[in-house]
Design brief:
475 residues, mainly alpha, Cytochrome Bc1 Complex, Chain D, domain 2, two-stranded antiparallel sheet, 14 helices, 8 strands
Length: 475
């Protein structure tokens, strides 16, 4: 017994030492280069939880103010978070204005023009890469998990008496920088109906009433399953959950609201250790019928594979061991996955009245600036090399090698490192889907243009950048 006690004490001291080292490095915003993750990297998450739920709850609630303060300071240091709507530019449902302007803050004394003329090596050496262009940490990266915006939390609580609220964190990006809520629903099977949402959020309580007479029986059953909550890593019955009450779980459309997105985020399930995982912004399901690569890093080749993987693994941070404990849902490929995939394939892009059937601007409907933006897009800007065809994607994965511009470092418990290939996302309906890039680090289309102008070295003028933004708002 004494030997076991001494071993336990020694183990606790080691953990405390590693934790202290981890904290000292992760709290820095501009640390020296970190080539290895502090501590011993792990593949598996703990299965046996040593603390009871009330202890975990009390510790997390106590730590929450400091957690949120740290993330708020990071965002304010990186971005201009003000509410600056573009004049006369609304999202497709008309419920939220599109935000305008570059929000990423430059290093003091720097300009975008000067920065674009510098080599990646010089930017890296002088630490001049804008912090808002660095990978964005999860609000609580050492834990991760799904975090929902307040609109979604409030609406689901009222409709289903089910809480998506976490007691350890809150959503970090202001609502005016997120997709409109609730978003409109456009169906590829009934384009003549336009928005079929009636301005409502689809829930397990109202989906039949809203979609009866519009969907087929197969699609209706697929929608029911997409709206049915199943256990997830942070929302379940176990003592390490992050919901105050035991939870039925989350549904697919809790993130992919109305077949689109509400900006909910989590960490990618495909990377280990925890510090190296990437924040993932929820992508829209609009137009998945035209896509053959699913998942930012996973390169899943069918919507059926994506649907099954999400339920079996991604819901549990990519750890099937903890999934077994918490009650994973294993949908049947033939009788359930097929129907869920069929419904997802019905979600269409918003109408694009300024585009012809080939995805090009109609001269009589587009402005001179928008036409100029199209020219930049397919030529000097080289956007069309990846975002090609009517769906503006190439069904490939590409590595932008952004790590050329910065040194590996720990920021808020996130190891900022080379991220590797990421899939090409469609640009159709892009104005409806902020924030941008796989982790939501780019808050506006203007930020996105500046990011790619720097990373790809195409050297656009200010006039060309503005035209490119105007053009993408037409897609």
């Amino acid at each position: 017994m004494r030997a076991k006690y001494l071993i336990a004490v020694a183990g606790a001291l080691c953990v405390m030492m590693v934790s202290a080292l981890h904290t000292s490095v992760s709290s820095q915003q501009n640390p020296a280069e970190v080539n290895e993750i502090p501590g011993k990297p792990k593949t598996y998450m703990p299965v046996v939880i040593e603390k009871d739920f009330q202890t975990i709850l009390q510790e997390d609630v106590k730590a929450k103010p400091e957690v949120m303060k740290r993330q708020t300071e990071l965002l304010r240091n990186r971005y201009d978070l003000s509410d600056r709507p573009a004049k006369g530019v609304m999202m497709s449902g008309g419920r939220r204005a599109v935000q305008e302007g570059v929000r990423v803050k430059l290093p003091e004394g720097m300009t975008w023009e000067r920065l674009a003329k510098m080599s990646p090596e010089e930017i890296r050496e002088k630490d001049l890469f804008p912090k808002g262009f660095l990978p964005l940490p999860h609000v609580k990266h050492e834990v991760g998990g799904q975090v929902f915006p307040k609109d979604q939390i409030d609406e689901i609580l009222e409709a289903e008496k089910r809480s998506l609220d976490r007691f350890d964190v809150e959503f970090d990006i202001p609502a005016h920088l997120l997709p409109e809520f609730p978003p409109p629903i456009f169906l590829s099977s009934r384009p003549d109906l336009g928005d079929v949402s009636q301005g409502k959020l689809l829930t397990i309580k109202n989906y039949y009433e809203l979609m009866h007479g519009i969907l087929t029986p197969v699609q209706m059953e697929g929608l029911r399953l997409l709206l049915t909550p199943f256990p997830q890593q942070q929302f379940n019955q176990t003592e390490d959950r992050k919901s105050e009450e035991p939870s039925f779980g989350v549904s697919c459309l809790d993130c992919h609201t109305n077949g689109h997105t509400n900006g909910a985020f989590h960490l990618n399930p495909d990377t280990r250790p925890q510090a190296a995982r990437l924040r993932l912004d929820t992508v829209s399901l609009r137009g998945v019928f035209n896509q053959h690569v699913h998942g930012s890093k996973r390169s899943l080749r069918s919507i059926e594979d994506f649907t099954e993987f999400e339920q079996r693994s991604a819901y549990f941070d990519g750890d099937h061991v903890t999934a077994a404990k918490k009650g994973a849902n294993f949908p049947d490929r033939v009788s359930q996955v097929m129907m869920m995939a069929q419904m997802q394939n019905m979600f269409d892009f918003p109408p694009t009245p300024k585009l012809d059937v080939f995805g090009k601007l109609i001269a009589g409907k587009a402005t001179e600036e928008e036409l100029m933006g199209q020219e930049v897009f397919f030529n000097k800007g080289r956007c069309g090399e990846c975002h090609s065809g009517p769906a503006f994607l190439d069904d490939q994965m590409h590595d932008l090698l952004v790590e050329r511009f910065y040194k590996p470092q720990m920021i808020n418990d996130h190891w900022i490192h080379a991220e590797g290939p990421i899939k090409t996302f469609t640009l159709m309906g892009i104005k409806d889907s902020p924030p941008y890039l796989h982790d939501g680090r780019l808050l506006t289309l203007e930020d996105t243009v500046e990011f790619f102008n720097l990373v790809t070295g195409v050297n656009l003028t200010n006039e060309e950048k503005k035209a490119l933004v105007a053009y993408m708002r037409c897609l």
